[in-house]
Amino acid sequence: MTYSDGATYVGEVKGGMYHGQGTYTYPDGEDYVREWKDGDEHGTGVITHGGGTQLMGEFKEGAPWSGINTVYDSKGNVLSASTYVRGYVVEEDDEVSH
Q1: What residues are paired with 8 via a beta bridge?
Q2: pLDDT averaged over every residue in the chain
Q3: Residue 37 DSSP class
Q4: Which residues contact residue 1 at a Cβ distance below 8 angstroms, ignoring those fewer than 6 apart?
Q5: pLDDT of 66-87, one tens digit each?
C-alpha cells in the first residue's frame, strides 16, 4: 500500500488493519519492521529512525515493552543505549564504550 503522503506498508492485513508481519516506511525513510496486531505494533520488531536511533525488541499495544533502544553516530558507533522491561526504561547508558 502506498499512501498519499508517500508512506508505504508492505505486509499482512486482516479486516483492513495491519496484522501479522509487515513494514511501514515513512516518507523520511523511518522504518517500522515488526509484527502487528489489530493495527497496533505488537510483538517483536525494529524501528529505525532518521538520525541514527534504532529500537529493537518487543512491542505491546503500540509501545516498547522489552528490548534495547540504541543511538548510533553517523559511522555506526553506539552512543547510548536504554533497556526496556515491561514498558519502562530500567537502565540507561549515555556513554557506551566503543
Answers
A1: 2, 25
A2: 84
A3: E
A4: 8, 9, 10
A5: 888 787 777 778 888 888 888 8
Place of cell 505491546: 60
For residue 48, list its beta bridge partners: 31, 54
Adjacent-strand bridge partners of 22: 11, 34
Q: Which residues pair with 44 in a beta bridge?
A: 58
Residue type (1 letter), 60: K
3 state DSSP class of 94:
coil
Q: For the chain, report the end-to-end CA distance as a whole number of angstroms.
A: 40
Q: What is the DSSP letter of 2?
A: B
CA 45 to CA 38: how far, in whole Å?
16
What residues form DSSP beta bridges with 46? 33, 56
Q: Residue 92 corresponds to which amino acid? A: E
Measured CA to CA, the distance from residue 89 to residue 40 in angstroms comes to 21
For the whole model, what pTM was predicted? 0.72
Cell numbers of 7, please? Answer: 508512506
Residue 23 grid cell: 513494514
